[in-house]
Amino acid sequence: MNKFPSPLTTFKRTALMALVPLLAAAAVQAEKTEPKAKEKITVQAPDSMQDANLQDAHVDMLLLIGKDGQVADFVTLSAPSAELLEPAEAAVQEASFTPGENDGTPMPALLEVKLPVQGGTQDGKAIEEPQYAISNPKNLDQPLKAVEQGQTYVPSNEEGERIFGSAVVEFFVDRDGTVRVPRAVKSDDPHITEAAVMTLRGVHFTEPRIDGKPTAVLVRMPFAYNKPKEEEQQAAQGKQS
Question: Structural domains in the chain?
């Protein structure tokens, strides 16, 4: 269902492996440095926009930079036009960064960037309001629905023992229905976070639209991994005896 060449498949495992240490490090107070692009990143306007006034135009994106300095995942937050989305995404996928550090150790990190747009003309009226931006799910033409469900992962520790608990994961749904930059805002255990994120990576949603135009939305979803009732009953009986 994906219309674009690199959304879920390319970043699926890479983004997950970069995300888990990020979540684990969030609770640790340490000296941190942000990732930095090794070269300036710009967005080349397509031929269809060469007559548009793109002076001071930029595309805002949220990037997940892995420990290796490569972009593990991304989402476009706003753009003057939807026609700039593919050029912007191509630009960040080709970019290389100095990774962020936590007490001198390379760590995955989220980075918000503003990418200047090259091309267009300085004549005419500039585009003042972004034509593409993150939207409220309530404002969509049709409610957001999961149309493809992959594997459901069960949290377990290194010894293979199941872990029970809950998590709340925040993520974006891109214009093509792809899950982007999932991160736990609440979790009982890092293994639960990992299972929830891996499960989400296999989910594909309907393409969000407002007035027929592409958009992206920010969603929060709870995950609960509860003990089977039989195990709870056995545990209760054991306590009574």
Answer: 8-236 (3.30.2420.10)
Identify whether the C-beta of residue 204 lies closer than 8 Å to the C-beta of residue 178: yes
Residues 6+ away with beta carbon under 8 Å from 157: 163, 191
How many other C-beta atoms are found inside a 10 Å radius of the C-beta of residue 184?
23
pLDDT of residue 31: 76
Q: What is the mean pLDDT of residues 139-168?
A: 95
- 235 pLDDT more than 70: no
pLDDT at 9 over 70: no
Q: Looking at the chain, how many residues does it have?
A: 241
**pLDDT the model gives residue 19:** 53
